[in-house]
From TrEMBL, chain A:
Organism annotation: Variovorax ginsengisoli
Record keyword Manganese present: no
Keywords, alphabetical: Membrane, Transmembrane, Transmembrane helix
Domain of life: Bacteria
InterPro entries: Permease_MalE
Record-given protein name: ABC transporter permease
Transmembrane spans: 63-87, 93-117, 165-186, 206-229, 241-267
UniProt xrefs under Pfam families: MlaE (PF02405)
Source taxonomy: Bacteria, Pseudomonadati, Pseudomonadota, Betaproteobacteria, Burkholderiales
Length: 269, 259
């Protein structure tokens, strides 16, 4: 049977599709999420408010404690490393600059995103993969509800909303950790430390950190949901989906942070 | 015009043919059984009928409207004409039983929240789960989950129900109660039912019509009411299935080209 000839547009589409190869499904998923988000912003959302509230609570209030603890320790570690080196040059006070800039620009956003990837992203993947195995996603589709609208959107939206707040908590915890170590090792007063921190921190640092936290939140949410939805319908599939979501999220966070670093350098910010 | 009509449906995964030449009609109030051995494609057929899996060829029409040729809006409208009970019940685990039943009402009716809850409670009373309305699915037994899934499927009073092995895994008494419930639903709502089952007592008790899918020839080998098929001179595999006998050795079939 002769093959019908393709139009130039169809040929281009076919070429792009074959070139995209393994990226086709993630890119299609991203497109579907963006279309669903656009429709939701125009008021056509189908997910339940109760589900949004449950996910919001799970990735905010219930995540604060671990985010605070981990970032407090990271701030303390940064201060400890900085204090040892800076004290040799009599520049111990600058440990506040080091901690403030490192925490606000890099560590608070990265560490928080990694914690959320291991906690919330993994939970998204496991929950949705289990729903796949139990035919719960099929039951939604029979009702005319798509998994993207009903399951993915509230999860990604929750992380987009909550990650900046968690970032602020993480910054405070990191600075506090640095201050404790500086006080203990360098005999710096809290007032001097905070004054130095306020002088070194700028809105640019904080804006960059918030921008990263939003981006990382979107990444973690979408990766968790993507792995959950494409999981095999068995117990092993749930495990594979969870592992894949965490690994991909962490690698993705590092790659995105590198891109942020290059862009920030190019833009001189 | 039939409530549901399937014409020359072909089920295929990649190049692997599952079934072909499937044609059937379901009229209002009919209880239609999809029979066959394990792995012959019965549940896959239901997935083609409810829009979860596109068929390789053939048509599925509801009241004359071709489901797979319709656009998204038309499909959404067609979906409101049926409810489905999944083999695992597939209750949404993050919602209570009441919320599970309310969601189809929110999607497929214009009832407000209070009316939806009242209707959902009424349906749950019908399936004898009224006192379990605020329970989560994890707290229910297998039979209760099936009845809750059935309540969810019938809540919006669709004219057609799809039931995937409704009595699988249930004890004989629970299975019989579920059969009686299906007959009661047909009697009170006039809904047609398409159900997949291996359970001979259920097939003989409730089915008016049916189709038998054969895994060897990959096509239907019998049509009709299971009770009548059991009395007729039918294909040896159908006879063995309906009389719970070991079938005769399969005769190698001529090689079939996949479409």
């Amino acid at each position: 049977m002769p093959q019908p000839s393709l139009s130039p547009r169809q040929t281009l589409g076919t070429l792009l599709r074959s070139a995209a190869g393994p990226l086709e499904r993630p890119v299609r998923f991203l497109g579907e999420v963006l279309l669903s988000a656009g429709a939701a912003m125009r008021g056509h959302w189908t997910f339940r408010r109760e589900d949004l509230g449950r996910v919001l609570a799970d990735c905010s209030a219930r995540a604060v404690a671990i985010v605070l603890v981990v970032n407090l320790l990271v701030g303390a570690i940064l201060a400890f490393v900085g204090a040892v080196q800076l004290a040799k040059f009599g520049a111990g006070i600058f440990v506040a600059d080091l901690v403030a800039i490192a925490v606000a620009r890099e560590m608070a956003a990265i560490i928080t995103a990694v914690v959320i990837a291991g906690r919330t992203g993994a939970a998204f993947a496991a929950e949705i993969a289990t729903m796949q195995a139990n035919e719960e996603v099929d039951a939604l589709e029979v009702l005319g509800l798509t998994a993207i609208d009903f399951l993915v959107l509230p999860r990604v939206g929750s992380l987009l909303l909550m990650m900046p707040l968690l970032y602020i908590f993480a910054c405070v915890a990191g600075l506090l950790g640095g201050m404790i170590v500086a006080a203990a090792m360098l005999d710096l007063s809290a007032t001097a430390y905070l004054q130095r921190t306020a002088e070194s921190l700028t809105w640019t640092h904080l804006g960059l950190g918030i921008g990263k936290s939003v981006t990382f939140g979107a990444l973690v949410g979408m990766v968790g949901c993507y792995y959950g939805l494409r999981a095999q319908r068995n117990a092993a599939g749930v495990g594979v989906a969870t592992t894949g979501a965490v690994v991909t999220s962490i690698v993705g966070i590092i790659v995105l942070d590198a891109i942020f670093a290059v862009c920030a350098n190019a833009l001189d910010i | 015009m039939s409530l549901l009509a399937v014409d020359q449906l072909v089920m295929q995964f990649g190049t692997r043919l599952i079934q072909k030449d499937i044609s059937l009609k379901v009229e209002k109030g009919c209880i239609f059984a999809v029979m066959g051995g394990s792995g012959c494609g019965k549940s896959t057929l239901l997935k083609h009928l409810v829009g979860l899996l596109p068929p390789a060829a053939g048509t599925v029409t509801y009241d004359g409207v071709d489901f797979w040729a319709s656009d998204d809006a038309q499909r959404s409208a067609l979906r409101s004409r049926f409810g489905m009970l999944f083999q695992s019940a597939a209750l949404w685990s993050s919602m209570t039983v009441l919320e599970n039943v309310c969601l189809p009402l929110a999607r497929q009716t214009r009832l407000d929240a209070k009316q939806r809850e009242a209707k959902a409670r009424e349906v749950l009373e019908w399936v004898e789960l009224g006192e379990f309305a605020n329970f989560y699915p994890a707290s229910l037994s297998g039979g209760m989950k099936k009845r809750a899934g059935l309540a969810r499927a019938i809540a919006a009073e669709p004219p057609l129900l799809f039931l995937d092995e409704p009595s699988a895994g249930l004890d004989p008494i629970s299975s019989r109660r579920l059969d009686d419930l299906i007959l009661d639903i047909r009697h009170r709502t006039g809904a047609a039912v398409v159900f997949v089952s291996h359970e001979l007592p259920s097939l003989f008790a409730i089915a008016d019509d049916g189709i038998f899918l054969d895994a060897d020839s990959k096509r239907p080998i019998a049509h009709g009411c299971p009770r009548e098929l059991a009395r007729q001179d039918v294909h040896p595999t159908v006879h063995a299935f309906l009389h719970r006998e070991v079938p005769p050795p399969a005769v190698p079939a001529a090689t079939e080209a996949t479409p």
